[in-house]
Amino acid sequence: MINDETLDYLRIYFNNLEGYKLDDKEFLEYRYLDSGNIDSFEIVSLIIDIETRFDVSIDADDTESDEFRYIEGLAKIIDEKSALHKR
Amino acid sequence: MCDIFNKVTNQAELFPNKVAIIENNGDTLTYRQLMISVNRYTTFLQNKIGKNYEKVAICIYEGKITPIIVLALSFLRHTIIPLNPRLKSNQLKYLLSSVDAKTVIVDSNTINLFKEVEINTIKIDCNFKYKDNTIVRPNKINNYDDFIITLSSGSTGDPKPIVISEQVKMMRFAQAVEIFTVTSDDVILCASPFFHSLGQRLTLLPLVAGATLVQLPNFTTKKWCEMVIEHRVTFTISVSSHLHLVMDNLLKSPNDFNSLRCLVSSSASIDKDVKSKLFKLLGCEFHEMYGATEIATATNLNQVDSLKKPASVGAPCKNVKIRIVNDNFLDKNTMELGKIIIKSPLASSGYYNQPKVTDKFFVSGYFVTGDIGFLDKDGFLYFVDREKDIIISGGENIYPSDIEACINKHSSVDSSIVIGIDDIYFGEVPVAVVVAMVDDHILIEKQLRLFLRSNLASNQQPMKYFFRKSFPLTPSGKIDRRKLQNSINSFGLDLSAKLRQIQKIKNK
Questions:
Q1: Shortest alpha-carbon distance between residue A51 and chain B (Å)
Q2: What residues of A are in contact with residue B110 (Cβ under 8 Å)?
């Protein structure tokens, strides 16, 4: 189960980038990194934003994983990291 | 001098069945199909806009539709104002008013950006189906003064709308044809957006020259390499951040890229060892150039000269005059540092509706670049530093004052400074240094990130925030940006490291 807060955050983030009006199922499966719609500034900005917002560190293992490439996987990475952090 | 529309029509008559445009997805248009599509859009836009000589903005995600719309607008004698579709609504609204645009052409992805803007909005279908027809050849039309207005950045505070006449645009194409020996046999890759002057040149130059345009609106290393190999690209001009990324692939398997006959780096210089390897392995000509949207290419450093003068940005192009002057516009001696000012027949006529700013930057026919450098005894130019605070990130100009104004709106921020720090991927990236009135810096940073994200474009987001009690000052009492910049650069932050990691995986 993905944390609502994480999902809301990602929904707002991606809806803010124009052209991402996707329904819930599409949204979770959306492979944003392969879409060609997100530019390199946005990728960097997204990573830094997640790190600041959730107080987590996204490392090479994360960016190299397939999970990182679609929204649901990214949400799981954030949730796992912040759970670890809270413990 | 022939106008752009007639020049492309001539090419269509010479090479009706030749491929004019290859899109990112592999779709193609021949010259005949291109001109028939242009005729169709000319009629469509004439009905929608009415009279000629209007200011018409274009805000669309690019593809073959971009040159079609541009040629149709140029035939109707409208001034074209290309906009960055990644900007926010409030930024676009401001830019439209700064150039008196009455009409904006949008697509399904960008239409919502203008829903709260009072403007004639024309929606076009980017996936239009080509319908055969006959080419309508217009009567001879005269060149017009305000062909295109390029906006220097996604600026909210100080947009500089650079006006280029059609004649100057044609002369700029002629310059590129001469320096880089472009012919109708070339296959030219455009990996820069149309709102950028480089994207304009690489989109229109192939069509004016009767060559083939290959479009890559969203750059990735993998896609760049695939497009060059698949379509046998012969020529392109790249921003240095792109070149830096593709260089490994070029050097690893040079045979795959042997169609390339000439590569040009448009901004920062490329390591001379890499250049000589490139030349040896690919047999590919390599140029570096220095210039600005206001004056086009001012210097050119070719393969031979770069071996003799690797640190130079090149010798002045034909009919271009370069002077190094002091604050009173008096000439400095050879090898002496000073302000770089440039006179060129390819210069813009100035900034739209901004006579004072135009007078400040165009002095006695010379454009004041805002750069510092020197000339050697052979007349080669050396770029040393930038005088203005502008940040150049991924080839795009970013004005710190726009970002600072946004940060300063936060109720707990006393003042802020945005500076560019060195980055191997982007060239430079913006970081913010903030003096806050309360101590909860983590909260302020979170709030600032949220606020800036909805008000500024992606390349204007500071990659890092630093909090300080005060700013260092220069002896004259100004904030010492250079000192802040040096101190942050000394941390050796590699802010694009994660992005490069992702790009590497993407290319596997």
A1: 10
A2: 18
